[in-house]
Amino acid sequence: MISFDFAANMGTNPNSKSLIGDICADLGFKTVRPYLGLQDAERLSKVNPIIFYLFDYSPDFERSKMQINELRASHQLRVRFAPLICFVESPSKESIIECVNAGFDDVLTIPWVASTIKERLSKQVNTKSIYFETDSYFGPDRRRFSDDKSKRGTTAPAAGFGFRRYEFVRNNFAGVQIMQDKVIGKAPKRQSAASQGGVQHRMSV
Predict the structure, then answer these.
(1) What's the CA gap between 28 and 166, in Å, rounded?
(2) What CATH code is assigned to 6-122?
(3) Which tens digits make up the pLDDT trace of 151-185?
(4) What are the residue ranges spanned by the domains of the chain?
(5) In degrees rounded to 5, what are phi and psi of residue 166?
(6) Considering Cα of 35, then 43, then 85, then 94, what sign does the dihedral take?
(7) Is 179 helix (H, G, I), strand (E, B) or coil?
């Protein structure tokens, strides 16, 4: 059983913040704080190995996507590879697709039962995860919900294109441990702490 120590409430309006706050209370998070920007997130990550960033799909979703891009561009691995979770109260095909394309680690729809949510969040810790980095994206495989799972991210893309594939594990002691960092095809132009220096990031940070 993992420990739910710290959550960032990413609500973009009073209703969103209240909803996420209620969910955090049900899950038993020890500490819940509003998101105060990237600098604050990076400071908190130095003493909190794993911070769950909890979002709500709301009319202010464009602001949420800006926050996601900010977190995914961090030079602190604990922030850049942090679990981003979105709660969707009125799910539709379009909203789920938008959440997947935004780069969430998981998208949870109603009914929200504490035991089910805990089980889903637990899968973000002590389990191998895979992220992809392209010129314009960083996060989980957006094709992970497709039927043909056997070929995801294993073949080289068309000439002139490429991506970076990360295998990593999050844990409550070290934070993030990069297990593999592999370029397939042309290296992406996107620059980050995770894509600079290669081998030196195969450690817990």
Answers:
(1) 31
(2) 3.40.50.2300
(3) 555 555 545 678 999 999 999 998 999 999 999 88
(4) 6-122, 128-201
(5) -110, 135
(6) positive
(7) strand
